Amino acid sequence: MIFLLLISCFIIRGSFNVSAATASMENQIYDGISNRQINVLYPNEIYAINNCTFSNCFATGNGGALNIKVFNGASINIANCTFTNCISTANGGAIWLDIYAGSTSTFEGLIKFKNCTGNVGGALHIKIGGINSKLYINEMQFQDCYSTSTGGGLYLLNQISAHAYIEQLSFSNCSSLSSGGGTQIISESKGFIQINQMTVEDCQCINGNGG
């Protein structure tokens, strides 16, 4: 089952959740939204976020702008999006992303994070697990992001035979309190991660565990 709804470009403010009939966000500007819930839970269901800008987002829960769950063979595609000044007092200053049970998440084009803050994962927190679960990242840039725990820009946990393929990551002036000033990447329980290119400049960990 594939749902598709295209929405023209306008500025959206405030908090809201995705309805069952909404399957895409395209060419939109989101200013001040909070912890938008996106649940893609059914086999062959596809959700797309394309060419959107997220600014000044804040949440006390996981994911300052977006809280995304992709399960049961579903897919989400995120392309050419920018996240600026997004904050979560929990994890994932801009995005919290869970990928499980044979699902796929793809980041296409260029994804930018600037001045985002979270606990675990200053800008982006990703957990992926399960056989046939896959993560694809083309290019991500993290600038001036901060974690109050681990992974100043990105926290990635890959486990239970999941696969992650990353083409290019760059971190500039990112920091964390505990470990991984730019990023913390963990692979366990036969998780597979391939990273082709990573650039890190002026990043630091306050406690000294991997600037």
Automatic annotation (TrEMBL):
Keywords: Signal. It comes from the Eukaryota. Residues 1-17 form the signal peptide. Gene3D superfamilies: Single-stranded right-handed beta-helix, Pectin lyase-like. The keyword Kinase does not apply. This is Right handed beta helix domain-containing protein.
